[in-house]
Design goal:
159 residues, mainly alpha, three-stranded parallel sheet, 74% helix, elongated
């Protein structure tokens, strides 16, 4: 049985979201050879790009938070309120730790996909049809690429 998955499937796994356990079970069935998982290449690239964007945002938040807290600690009336600075450090550290954890999980899942799933390549036909899908179906560019990839694969491998 062929199962097509898209970017949100990868997001569920990498970011351990609500449907994480179900997605993990599907991936395990694929690794056991019981089903065939088919993934558009773009669905592995988009999460990587999101990780990079999110890491930059979290690093900026962490820097801003640290700068603001240092300024507040210079104010005598606020110094006594920061008697538990460890909680603030924990938040700052969590932001940085989450970046590392998510990157590690992405690499692990990407490697698992590359070992057991069929990856639909992004080629000129897919890109051309994605541009048409954006207009015809009013898709966002990401959705148009995924849809065009699946349709390309189905034309090449009829059920």
């Amino acid at each position: 049985m062929n199962i097509y998955v898209e970017t949100n499937f990868v997001f569920e796994l990498v970011f351990e979201q609500e449907q994480f356990a179900s997605c993990e079970q599907i991936l395990q069935l694929t690794e056991a050879g019981r089903i065939q998982l088919i993934v558009p290449a773009y669905s592995l690239a988009e999460p990587h790009e999101k990780l990079i964007r999110q890491a930059k945002k979290r690093e900026e938040i962490q820097r801003t938070l640290n700068t603001e807290l240092k300024q507040l600690l210079r104010t005598a009336s606020y110094q006594s309120r920061f008697n538990n600075i460890n909680n603030i450090d924990n938040v700052s550290n969590l932001l940085l730790l989450s970046i590392q954890d998510e990157k590690r999980r992405f690499i692990q899942y990407r490697d698992r996909f590359l070992r057991c799933a069929e990856i639909i390549p992004m080629n000129a036909d897919v890109i051309r049809n994605a541009a048409i899908n954006e207009v015809d179906f009013e898709f966002q560019p990401q959705d148009a690429l995924v849809y065009a990839s699946v349709m390309f694969h189905l034309r090449q491998n009829p059920p």
